[in-house]
Amino acid sequence: MSSGTTHRVVEAVWRIESAKLVAALARVTGDVGLAEELAQDALVAALERWPQTGVPDKPAAWLMATAKHRAVDVFRRAERLERKTAQLGRDLQEAEEPDWAAALDEVVEDDLLRLVFIACHPVLSREARLALTLRLLGGLATDEIARAFLVAESTVAQRIVRAKRTLAAAAVPFEMPTGPDFTARLSSVLEVVYLIFNEGYAATAGAHWTRPTLCQEALRLGRVLAELTPEEPEVHGLVALMEIQASRMRARIGPTGEPVLLDEQDRGRWDHVLIGRGLAALRRAERTGTALGPYALQAAIAACHARARTAAETDWIRIAALYEALAELAPSPVVELNRAVAVSRAYGPGAGLELVDALVDVPALRGYHLLPSVRGDLLARLGRATEARAEFERAAALTRNEQERVLLSDRAAACGGPLR
Protein backbone atom coordinates (compact mmCIF):
# COMPACT_ATOMS: atom_id res chain seq x y z
CA MET A 1 0.00 0.00 0.00
CA SER A 2 1.43 3.37 -1.01
CA SER A 3 2.10 6.14 1.50
CA GLY A 4 -0.67 8.29 0.01
CA THR A 5 -3.17 5.44 0.22
CA THR A 6 -2.16 4.73 3.82
CA HIS A 7 -2.64 8.37 4.75
CA ARG A 8 -6.15 8.30 3.28
CA VAL A 9 -6.90 5.16 5.30
CA VAL A 10 -5.63 6.86 8.47
CA GLU A 11 -7.81 9.90 7.77
CA ALA A 12 -10.87 7.71 7.18
CA VAL A 13 -10.28 5.72 10.37
CA TRP A 14 -9.78 8.95 12.30
CA ARG A 15 -13.02 10.49 11.01
CA ILE A 16 -14.94 7.38 12.06
CA GLU A 17 -13.21 6.54 15.33
CA SER A 18 -11.97 9.85 16.77
CA ALA A 19 -15.13 10.57 18.76
CA LYS A 20 -15.03 7.13 20.41
CA LEU A 21 -11.33 7.53 21.11
CA VAL A 22 -11.66 10.98 22.70
CA ALA A 23 -14.73 9.86 24.65
CA ALA A 24 -12.98 6.84 26.15
CA LEU A 25 -9.88 8.87 27.00
CA ALA A 26 -11.96 11.66 28.53
CA ARG A 27 -13.68 9.10 30.74
CA VAL A 28 -10.44 7.84 32.24
CA THR A 29 -8.59 11.18 32.37
CA GLY A 30 -11.51 13.43 33.29
CA ASP A 31 -10.08 16.11 30.98
CA VAL A 32 -11.47 16.69 27.48
CA GLY A 33 -8.48 18.81 26.44
CA LEU A 34 -5.96 16.18 27.51
CA ALA A 35 -8.07 13.44 25.93
CA GLU A 36 -7.98 15.19 22.56
CA GLU A 37 -4.22 15.78 22.81
CA LEU A 38 -3.64 12.08 23.52
CA ALA A 39 -5.87 11.10 20.62
CA GLN A 40 -4.00 13.49 18.32
CA ASP A 41 -0.69 11.97 19.47
CA ALA A 42 -2.01 8.55 18.49
CA LEU A 43 -3.06 9.93 15.09
CA VAL A 44 0.43 11.33 14.50
CA ALA A 45 1.93 7.98 15.47
CA ALA A 46 -0.33 6.21 12.98
CA LEU A 47 0.67 8.61 10.21
CA GLU A 48 4.32 7.91 10.99
CA ARG A 49 4.19 4.14 11.44
CA TRP A 50 1.43 2.68 9.29
CA PRO A 51 3.11 3.57 5.96
CA GLN A 52 6.06 1.38 7.09
CA THR A 53 4.28 -1.35 9.07
CA GLY A 54 0.95 -1.48 7.25
CA VAL A 55 -2.51 -0.80 8.62
CA PRO A 56 -3.17 -3.04 11.65
CA ASP A 57 -6.05 -5.51 11.66
CA LYS A 58 -7.80 -3.50 14.36
CA PRO A 59 -6.88 0.14 13.64
CA ALA A 60 -9.25 1.60 16.26
CA ALA A 61 -7.81 -0.70 18.93
CA TRP A 62 -4.27 0.28 17.86
CA LEU A 63 -5.10 3.97 18.22
CA MET A 64 -6.62 3.40 21.65
CA ALA A 65 -3.68 1.35 22.90
CA THR A 66 -1.21 3.96 21.62
CA ALA A 67 -3.17 6.81 23.21
CA LYS A 68 -3.38 5.04 26.58
CA HIS A 69 0.33 4.22 26.54
CA ARG A 70 1.02 7.90 25.94
CA ALA A 71 -1.37 8.80 28.76
CA VAL A 72 0.65 6.69 31.17
CA ASP A 73 3.81 8.49 30.04
CA VAL A 74 2.15 11.87 30.62
CA PHE A 75 1.10 10.97 34.13
CA ARG A 76 4.50 9.49 34.89
CA ARG A 77 6.17 12.73 33.88
CA ALA A 78 3.72 14.61 36.06
CA GLU A 79 4.57 12.37 39.00
CA ARG A 80 1.02 11.15 39.25
CA LEU A 81 1.62 7.65 37.99
CA GLU A 82 0.66 5.89 41.20
CA ARG A 83 -2.77 7.53 41.34
CA LYS A 84 -3.53 7.24 37.65
CA THR A 85 -2.01 3.82 36.92
CA ALA A 86 -5.00 2.19 38.59
CA GLN A 87 -7.20 3.81 35.94
CA LEU A 88 -4.95 3.73 32.90
CA GLY A 89 -2.25 1.16 33.40
CA ARG A 90 -3.97 -1.87 34.88
CA ASP A 91 -4.75 -3.55 31.56
CA LEU A 92 -1.33 -2.59 30.18
CA GLN A 93 0.38 -4.44 33.05
CA GLU A 94 -1.78 -7.55 32.79
CA ALA A 95 -1.14 -8.30 29.12
CA GLU A 96 1.27 -7.20 26.45
CA GLU A 97 -1.48 -7.03 23.80
CA PRO A 98 -4.79 -6.24 25.52
CA ASP A 99 -7.94 -6.41 23.44
CA TRP A 100 -8.71 -2.71 23.48
CA ALA A 101 -11.48 -3.18 20.89
CA ALA A 102 -13.40 -5.40 23.32
CA ALA A 103 -12.84 -2.90 26.12
CA LEU A 104 -14.10 -0.10 23.88
CA ASP A 105 -17.22 -2.05 22.97
CA GLU A 106 -18.12 -2.30 26.65
CA VAL A 107 -18.10 1.43 27.30
CA VAL A 108 -18.31 3.21 23.96
CA GLU A 109 -22.02 4.03 24.11
CA ASP A 110 -21.87 5.57 27.58
CA ASP A 111 -18.64 7.37 26.71
CA LEU A 112 -20.01 8.86 23.50
CA LEU A 113 -23.19 10.03 25.16
CA ARG A 114 -21.23 11.68 27.95
CA LEU A 115 -19.00 13.39 25.39
CA VAL A 116 -22.05 14.74 23.53
CA PHE A 117 -23.38 16.28 26.73
CA ILE A 118 -20.00 17.73 27.68
CA ALA A 119 -19.46 19.32 24.25
CA CYS A 120 -22.89 20.97 24.59
CA HIS A 121 -22.57 21.97 28.25
CA PRO A 122 -24.48 25.19 29.04
CA VAL A 123 -21.36 26.72 30.59
CA LEU A 124 -20.15 27.19 27.00
CA SER A 125 -21.41 29.77 24.52
CA ARG A 126 -23.45 28.62 21.53
CA GLU A 127 -20.51 29.29 19.19
CA ALA A 128 -18.19 27.29 21.43
CA ARG A 129 -20.63 24.39 21.56
CA LEU A 130 -20.85 24.34 17.77
CA ALA A 131 -17.08 24.36 17.32
CA LEU A 132 -16.36 21.81 20.04
CA THR A 133 -19.11 19.44 18.87
CA LEU A 134 -17.83 19.47 15.30
CA ARG A 135 -14.24 19.02 16.50
CA LEU A 136 -14.80 16.22 19.02
CA LEU A 137 -17.81 14.41 17.59
CA GLY A 138 -17.73 15.36 13.93
CA GLY A 139 -14.00 14.78 13.62
CA LEU A 140 -13.61 18.00 11.61
CA ALA A 141 -10.32 19.89 11.64
CA THR A 142 -10.20 23.53 12.71
CA ASP A 143 -9.82 24.79 9.15
CA GLU A 144 -12.83 22.72 8.02
CA ILE A 145 -15.01 24.24 10.75
CA ALA A 146 -13.76 27.72 9.85
CA ARG A 147 -14.63 27.21 6.18
CA ALA A 148 -18.04 25.84 7.06
CA PHE A 149 -19.04 28.90 9.08
CA LEU A 150 -17.03 31.46 7.08
CA VAL A 151 -14.96 32.66 10.03
CA ALA A 152 -11.21 32.89 10.50
CA GLU A 153 -9.42 29.68 11.42
CA SER A 154 -7.83 31.53 14.35
CA THR A 155 -11.30 32.41 15.64
CA VAL A 156 -12.39 28.77 15.62
CA ALA A 157 -9.12 27.70 17.26
CA GLN A 158 -9.61 30.27 20.01
CA ARG A 159 -13.18 29.14 20.60
CA ILE A 160 -12.09 25.52 20.95
CA VAL A 161 -9.22 26.38 23.29
CA ARG A 162 -11.46 28.60 25.42
CA ALA A 163 -14.13 25.91 25.51
CA LYS A 164 -11.70 23.33 26.87
CA ARG A 165 -10.37 25.79 29.44
CA THR A 166 -13.88 26.74 30.49
CA LEU A 167 -14.84 23.09 30.98
CA ALA A 168 -11.68 22.49 33.01
CA ALA A 169 -12.14 25.65 35.11
CA ALA A 170 -15.75 24.73 35.82
CA ALA A 171 -14.61 21.21 36.82
CA VAL A 172 -17.34 19.72 34.63
CA PRO A 173 -17.47 16.03 35.55
CA PHE A 174 -17.40 13.40 32.83
CA GLU A 175 -20.78 12.00 33.73
CA MET A 176 -24.34 12.00 32.48
CA PRO A 177 -26.72 14.62 33.88
CA THR A 178 -29.88 13.29 35.48
CA GLY A 179 -33.45 14.46 36.08
CA PRO A 180 -34.26 18.05 35.08
CA ASP A 181 -30.60 18.69 34.27
CA PHE A 182 -30.70 15.92 31.66
CA THR A 183 -33.77 17.45 30.02
CA ALA A 184 -32.19 20.90 29.94
CA ARG A 185 -28.90 19.61 28.56
CA LEU A 186 -30.63 17.42 25.97
CA SER A 187 -32.38 20.52 24.67
CA SER A 188 -28.97 22.17 24.27
CA VAL A 189 -27.57 19.12 22.48
CA LEU A 190 -30.47 19.01 20.02
CA GLU A 191 -30.22 22.75 19.39
CA VAL A 192 -26.53 22.50 18.52
CA VAL A 193 -27.05 19.54 16.17
CA TYR A 194 -29.90 21.33 14.40
CA LEU A 195 -27.93 24.59 14.15
CA ILE A 196 -25.18 22.64 12.39
CA PHE A 197 -27.71 21.06 10.05
CA ASN A 198 -29.43 24.36 9.27
CA GLU A 199 -26.16 26.06 8.38
CA GLY A 200 -25.56 23.25 5.91
CA TYR A 201 -29.11 23.30 4.55
CA ALA A 202 -29.22 27.06 3.92
CA ALA A 203 -25.85 28.74 4.42
CA THR A 204 -26.04 32.07 6.22
CA ALA A 205 -23.41 33.70 4.03
CA GLY A 206 -20.93 33.07 1.25
CA ALA A 207 -21.03 31.96 -2.37
CA HIS A 208 -22.83 28.64 -1.88
CA TRP A 209 -26.51 28.07 -1.16
CA THR A 210 -25.85 24.86 0.79
CA ARG A 211 -22.98 23.16 2.65
CA PRO A 212 -23.74 19.43 2.38
CA THR A 213 -20.84 18.37 4.64
CA LEU A 214 -22.45 20.09 7.61
CA CYS A 215 -25.78 18.40 6.91
CA GLN A 216 -24.04 15.04 6.76
CA GLU A 217 -22.23 15.63 10.05
CA ALA A 218 -25.41 16.76 11.80
CA LEU A 219 -27.29 13.74 10.48
CA ARG A 220 -24.53 11.42 11.68
CA LEU A 221 -24.59 13.00 15.15
CA GLY A 222 -28.38 12.82 15.27
CA ARG A 223 -28.44 9.16 14.29
CA VAL A 224 -25.83 8.31 16.93
CA LEU A 225 -27.79 10.23 19.55
CA ALA A 226 -31.02 8.44 18.58
CA GLU A 227 -29.39 5.06 19.14
CA LEU A 228 -27.99 6.19 22.48
CA THR A 229 -31.30 7.61 23.74
CA PRO A 230 -33.96 5.36 22.19
CA GLU A 231 -36.73 6.48 24.57
CA GLU A 232 -36.40 10.23 23.87
CA PRO A 233 -39.10 11.23 21.36
CA GLU A 234 -37.59 14.63 20.53
CA VAL A 235 -34.32 13.00 19.47
CA HIS A 236 -36.23 10.88 16.96
CA GLY A 237 -38.22 13.96 15.98
CA LEU A 238 -35.05 15.87 15.18
CA VAL A 239 -33.60 12.96 13.22
CA ALA A 240 -36.86 12.67 11.27
CA LEU A 241 -36.80 16.38 10.48
CA MET A 242 -33.18 16.31 9.28
CA GLU A 243 -33.63 13.12 7.23
CA ILE A 244 -36.64 14.52 5.37
CA GLN A 245 -35.10 17.93 4.79
CA ALA A 246 -31.84 16.37 3.64
CA SER A 247 -33.79 14.32 1.09
CA ARG A 248 -34.33 17.54 -0.92
CA MET A 249 -30.70 18.63 -1.06
CA ARG A 250 -30.04 17.64 -4.68
CA ALA A 251 -33.25 19.26 -5.89
CA ARG A 252 -32.61 22.53 -4.03
CA ILE A 253 -29.73 23.54 -6.31
CA GLY A 254 -29.91 24.35 -10.02
CA PRO A 255 -27.26 23.68 -12.70
CA THR A 256 -25.20 26.77 -11.85
CA GLY A 257 -25.63 26.53 -8.08
CA GLU A 258 -28.69 28.74 -7.92
CA PRO A 259 -31.40 28.06 -5.30
CA VAL A 260 -34.49 26.16 -6.43
CA LEU A 261 -37.53 26.89 -4.27
CA LEU A 262 -39.73 24.09 -2.93
CA ASP A 263 -42.62 24.49 -5.38
CA GLU A 264 -40.23 24.45 -8.34
CA GLN A 265 -38.19 21.42 -7.32
CA ASP A 266 -38.11 18.22 -9.35
CA ARG A 267 -39.50 15.83 -6.77
CA GLY A 268 -38.11 12.93 -8.72
CA ARG A 269 -34.69 14.06 -7.50
CA TRP A 270 -35.70 13.82 -3.85
CA ASP A 271 -33.90 11.00 -2.03
CA HIS A 272 -36.66 8.56 -1.15
CA VAL A 273 -34.36 6.45 1.01
CA LEU A 274 -33.86 9.46 3.29
CA ILE A 275 -37.60 10.17 3.20
CA GLY A 276 -38.27 6.59 4.29
CA ARG A 277 -35.75 6.91 7.13
CA GLY A 278 -37.31 10.19 8.19
CA LEU A 279 -40.85 8.84 8.24
CA ALA A 280 -39.66 5.82 10.23
CA ALA A 281 -37.97 8.12 12.77
CA LEU A 282 -41.19 10.16 13.03
CA ARG A 283 -43.13 6.96 13.75
CA ARG A 284 -40.63 6.14 16.51
CA ALA A 285 -41.28 9.55 18.06
CA GLU A 286 -45.03 9.04 17.83
CA ARG A 287 -44.86 5.52 19.32
CA THR A 288 -43.45 6.84 22.61
CA GLY A 289 -46.99 7.87 23.48
CA THR A 290 -46.09 11.41 24.52
CA ALA A 291 -47.27 14.61 22.85
CA LEU A 292 -45.12 15.66 19.91
CA GLY A 293 -42.43 18.19 20.80
CA PRO A 294 -41.15 21.07 18.62
CA TYR A 295 -38.79 18.95 16.50
CA ALA A 296 -41.35 16.19 15.97
CA LEU A 297 -43.97 18.77 14.98
CA GLN A 298 -41.56 20.26 12.45
CA ALA A 299 -40.86 16.73 11.20
CA ALA A 300 -44.61 16.19 10.77
CA ILE A 301 -44.71 19.37 8.66
CA ALA A 302 -41.79 18.15 6.56
CA ALA A 303 -43.57 14.80 6.17
CA CYS A 304 -46.57 16.60 4.61
CA HIS A 305 -44.27 17.93 1.90
CA ALA A 306 -42.54 14.56 1.48
CA ARG A 307 -45.83 12.71 0.96
CA ALA A 308 -47.11 15.14 -1.67
CA ARG A 309 -46.35 13.84 -5.16
CA THR A 310 -46.64 17.35 -6.57
CA ALA A 311 -46.59 20.81 -5.05
CA ALA A 312 -50.29 21.18 -5.80
CA GLU A 313 -51.10 18.11 -3.69
CA THR A 314 -49.50 19.55 -0.54
CA ASP A 315 -51.86 19.47 2.45
CA TRP A 316 -51.46 23.12 3.43
CA ILE A 317 -54.45 23.04 5.78
CA ARG A 318 -52.75 20.36 7.89
CA ILE A 319 -49.43 22.21 7.71
CA ALA A 320 -51.10 25.41 8.94
CA ALA A 321 -52.66 23.47 11.84
CA LEU A 322 -49.30 21.92 12.73
CA TYR A 323 -47.67 25.36 12.72
CA GLU A 324 -50.41 26.62 15.02
CA ALA A 325 -49.63 23.76 17.42
CA LEU A 326 -45.91 24.55 17.14
CA ALA A 327 -46.57 28.24 17.86
CA GLU A 328 -48.45 27.29 21.03
CA LEU A 329 -45.74 24.89 22.18
CA ALA A 330 -42.65 26.91 21.22
CA PRO A 331 -43.74 30.45 20.35
CA SER A 332 -41.29 32.57 18.37
CA PRO A 333 -41.48 35.23 15.64
CA VAL A 334 -39.84 32.87 13.13
CA VAL A 335 -42.47 30.20 13.79
CA GLU A 336 -45.17 32.85 13.31
CA LEU A 337 -43.59 33.86 10.00
CA ASN A 338 -43.62 30.26 8.81
CA ARG A 339 -47.21 29.89 10.01
CA ALA A 340 -48.14 32.93 7.95
CA VAL A 341 -46.73 31.26 4.83
CA ALA A 342 -48.75 28.10 5.53
CA VAL A 343 -51.91 30.11 6.21
CA SER A 344 -51.42 31.99 2.95
CA ARG A 345 -51.21 28.73 1.01
CA ALA A 346 -54.20 27.23 2.82
CA TYR A 347 -56.50 30.24 3.00
CA GLY A 348 -55.13 32.83 0.58
CA PRO A 349 -52.37 35.47 0.49
CA GLY A 350 -54.55 38.08 2.20
CA ALA A 351 -54.86 35.94 5.34
CA GLY A 352 -51.11 35.34 5.33
CA LEU A 353 -50.27 39.01 4.82
CA GLU A 354 -52.37 39.98 7.83
CA LEU A 355 -50.21 37.71 10.01
CA VAL A 356 -46.97 38.96 8.45
CA ASP A 357 -47.89 42.61 8.91
CA ALA A 358 -48.24 41.95 12.63
CA LEU A 359 -44.57 40.91 12.68
CA VAL A 360 -43.09 43.92 10.88
CA ASP A 361 -42.19 45.79 14.06
CA VAL A 362 -41.04 42.77 16.09
CA PRO A 363 -37.44 43.56 17.24
CA ALA A 364 -36.27 39.95 16.86
CA LEU A 365 -37.02 40.05 13.13
CA ARG A 366 -35.34 43.38 12.47
CA GLY A 367 -32.71 42.69 9.84
CA TYR A 368 -34.09 39.18 9.16
CA HIS A 369 -34.18 38.98 5.37
CA LEU A 370 -36.91 36.34 5.19
CA LEU A 371 -39.49 38.74 6.63
CA PRO A 372 -39.45 41.11 3.61
CA SER A 373 -38.96 38.10 1.33
CA VAL A 374 -42.18 36.48 2.56
CA ARG A 375 -44.02 39.80 2.52
CA GLY A 376 -42.85 40.41 -1.05
CA ASP A 377 -44.14 37.02 -2.15
CA LEU A 378 -47.57 37.66 -0.60
CA LEU A 379 -47.80 41.15 -2.11
CA ALA A 380 -46.86 39.75 -5.54
CA ARG A 381 -49.58 37.11 -5.27
CA LEU A 382 -52.05 39.89 -4.42
CA GLY A 383 -51.03 41.82 -7.54
CA ARG A 384 -49.33 44.63 -5.60
CA ALA A 385 -46.19 44.50 -7.75
CA THR A 386 -44.61 47.83 -6.81
CA GLU A 387 -44.77 47.06 -3.09
CA ALA A 388 -43.57 43.50 -3.70
CA ARG A 389 -40.56 44.77 -5.63
CA ALA A 390 -39.54 47.04 -2.75
CA GLU A 391 -39.77 44.13 -0.30
CA PHE A 392 -37.67 41.80 -2.48
CA GLU A 393 -35.04 44.53 -2.92
CA ARG A 394 -34.93 45.02 0.83
CA ALA A 395 -34.57 41.26 1.40
CA ALA A 396 -31.75 41.09 -1.18
CA ALA A 397 -29.91 43.87 0.63
CA LEU A 398 -30.21 42.06 3.97
CA THR A 399 -29.09 38.55 3.03
CA ARG A 400 -25.39 37.63 3.24
CA ASN A 401 -25.70 34.63 0.94
CA GLU A 402 -24.67 35.48 -2.62
CA GLN A 403 -26.90 32.90 -4.31
CA GLU A 404 -29.91 33.99 -2.31
CA ARG A 405 -29.20 37.64 -3.12
CA VAL A 406 -29.33 36.84 -6.84
CA LEU A 407 -32.60 34.95 -6.40
CA LEU A 408 -34.23 37.82 -4.50
CA SER A 409 -32.95 40.39 -6.99
CA ASP A 410 -34.41 38.34 -9.83
CA ARG A 411 -37.75 38.20 -8.05
CA ALA A 412 -37.66 41.96 -7.61
CA ALA A 413 -36.94 42.42 -11.32
CA ALA A 414 -39.81 40.11 -12.22
CA CYS A 415 -42.19 42.53 -10.49
CA GLY A 416 -41.41 45.16 -13.15
CA GLY A 417 -40.36 48.79 -12.81
CA PRO A 418 -36.84 50.28 -12.63
CA LEU A 419 -34.17 48.78 -10.37
CA ARG A 420 -33.25 50.95 -7.44
TrEMBL record:
Tell me which residues make up the DUF6596 domain. Answer: 185-285
One Pfam family per UniProt = Sigma70_r2
Is Nucleotide-binding a UniProt keyword of this protein? Answer: no
- Species in which this protein is naturally found: Geodermatophilus ruber
Q: What is this protein called?
A: RNA polymerase, sigma subunit, ECF family
- What region holds the RNA polymerase sigma-70 region domain? 21-80
Output one GO MF annotation. Answer: DNA binding
Q: Enumerate the spans annotated as RNA polymerase sigma factor 70 region 4 type domain.
A: 117-167
Q: Which InterPro entries match?
A: DUF6596 (IPR046531), RNA_pol_sigma-70_dom (IPR014284), RNA_pol_sigma70_r2 (IPR007627), RNA_pol_sigma70_r4_t2 (IPR013249), RNA_pol_sigma_r2 (IPR013325), RNA_pol_sigma_r3/r4-like (IPR013324), WH-like_DNA-bd_sf (IPR036388)
Q: Which UniProt keywords apply?
A: Sigma factor, Transcription, Transcription regulation
Please give a single GO biological process term from the UniProt record. Answer: DNA-templated transcription initiation
Q: Does the keyword Transit peptide apply?
A: no
Q: Which family does it belong to?
A: Belongs to the sigma-70 factor family. ECF subfamily.
Q: Which SUPFAM superfamilies match?
A: Sigma2 domain of RNA polymerase sigma factors (SSF88946), Sigma3 and sigma4 domains of RNA polymerase sigma factors (SSF88659)
